[in-house]
Amino acid sequence: MIYKYDATQDKCPVPLVNLRLMLRKLTSADRCLIRICDSGSKQDIPKLLAKKGFYFEQRNIDKDVVELIITTEK
């Protein structure tokens, strides 16, 4: 399953809290796609993912929006 969350309209800490809830559901077969533009989220979310052991790819969609594709395995 692919979980999608467009957090471009949300400000920190809302994207971080919602992502934590989504990560609890993630299995090895799932992926999570999140888009963020808040500067606090851009800093905090990758730190959280690294700390929790999740793998992620980060892409810049435009000058403000960052997309993260998160998995439990490489």
TrEMBL record:
The keyword Iron-sulfur does not apply. GO terms for molecular function: transferase activity. InterPro entries: TusA-like (IPR001455), TusA-like_sf (IPR036868). It holds the Pfam family TusA. Residues 4-71 form the UPF0033 domain. Keywords: Transferase. This is Sulfurtransferase TusA.
